Amino acid sequence: MSLSQGRPHLAIPGPSVMPDRVLNAMHRAAPNIYAGPLVDMLPGLKADLKAVARTNQHVAIYIANGHGAWEAANVNLFSRGDVALSLVTGRFGEGWGQQARDMGVQVQAIDFGRRGPVDPAQVEAALRADREGRIKVVLLTHVDTATSVLNDVAAVRAAIDAAGHDALLAVDCIASLGCDRFEFDAWGVDVMVAASQKGLMVPPGLGFVWLSDKAMARCATSDLRTPYWDWRPRAAATEFWQNFNGTAPTHHLFGLREALDMLVHEEGLEHAWTRHDRLARAVWAAFETWGQGAPHIALNIADPVARARSVTAARITEPDATRLRQWCEAECGVTLGIGLGMASPDDPRWHGFLRVGHMGHVNAHMVLGTLAVMEAGLNALGIAHGGGGASAAAASLARG
Ligand SMILES: Cc1ncc(COP(=O)(O)O)c(C=O)c1O
Fold it and tell me: Which domains does the chain have, with CATH numbers?
């Protein structure tokens, strides 16, 4: 007998749980795109998007997913044959660099493995070695969703500056925006990409690029730039339609308005960061307890400083991660994330990783419920583990 009837819970790292308020805001008749509420609300939306990224500079909105936001950044930043320095700490860092390579950019990658963050000293050394200044942009992933590593953006900026290099810094915050602290202006970021379906709590379909004045200027000379992706009219639009280079993503914008009301005006961004921090620590406490005397269970990132607050990747020796995921979904209606990018699906190690998403519209009972279901699964499947992980998570939350 399954206990999965009732509201299912999606604990994958994006798309994340959407608030009913966001869905309800989208449930409306087609709006006028020439005048009225939709047109009137755009300046406020852009102001709040800037607030979420902590910048007074520019933002461009695209009808796109995260890959589209990557491409928007690449076409505006690069000309064919330019060099990018790609800092890889998981599948998504690799993916952004690969996309640039496929577009004709020469990508110099530094791979930091799958279990730790970027080492800024290596970044500085690579930039110092680039005496001719061929590297145009450093590509960094803030949180790599595959490994759940959190990279130190300010430290990478400091490394660029210490090398005396004028490369721009472009950061993928697709899995971290609204969850982990991010400071576009204060950290000296030039480009940041994100999408609607994770910390921003809106269905997939909107891609965003924030850009500095310097990045805005860079695209004037980029020969990869195409009219649709050009960020200049979008970021500096004087007419509503210019923001989207055509028809606006009408319903997504109403959803986004509601989500930003919740995040920026009601909860407050800093509070949301703290909420994600406390919930993430509860998840870590559960895994650390399950792993006691059970070395086959371990968090992928050992150092808490380098762990994301939005997603947690863990190892549970194959095939038990897959067995546990399947049990949680079939028996209890909780869907956990696959161990993306840690092995290929035909590799037995594929079944030795899983991820828990805790981004966006999540609260204590959703996280504790997920962890308690996982503990029930560990017991039901006879997977050896340290007892009391769910209690440890509850205690972590209680400590504050
Ligand atoms: C960090 C990161 N970058 C890029 C992407 C790609 O985004 P999308 O799947 O929306 O194209 C994802 C998706 O999970 C991601 O987590």
Answer: 9-16+269-399 (3.90.1150.10), 31-249 (3.40.640.10)
